[in-house]
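SAMPLE LOG
Freezer: B-3
Tube label: C17
Construct: single chain, 184 aa
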Amino acid sequence: MLNAPSSKILPRQVDPRKFAQQGIDLQGNIPLEALDRLAQIAVGENADIEVELHFEVDDQRHRLLRGQVSAKLQLTCERCMEPCDQHIEGSLALGIVWDEDRAKNLPKSIDAWIAPEGVSDLYEVIEEEILLCIPMAVYHDHQCVDLAHYSAGDNDASDETAEAEAERRNNPFQVLEQLKGSPK
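STRUCTURE (predicted):
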């Protein structure tokens, strides 16, 4: 996706409208500790977050931010609860607008970035994109938990079903249910 890794840190504060008018291209890295929500779910401190962005104005005079995000993170495996390396990639296609009303005028293929006049926090936009690209459940590629643990759960499930059936038969409110259903 992205070319050779860059050691340049991406600026946090940008003027998106001005950058779009000037057709600015940005490429660089973002330190994990600068992305609070992502840092909370990442297991290790080692993360490689690369970003390539292009600000532009299209033929319909929409100010746009397009780009690619690539992140190599360690997240918690849902099976074994150990660190799991994840490579996350995402594409940005955002229309830079003032408010919700103008966001409705954007094409369906473009999401809205509602930005006030002047500078905006570019890291928030990048962090949101990375969070949206993280899988719902993170697992190792290999079998990290012994299969015997899975089969033990099946017996527990049948025991729970039998217990629930016995409890339903011995329900003390069953008499009230019969009285409620009988004619007066």
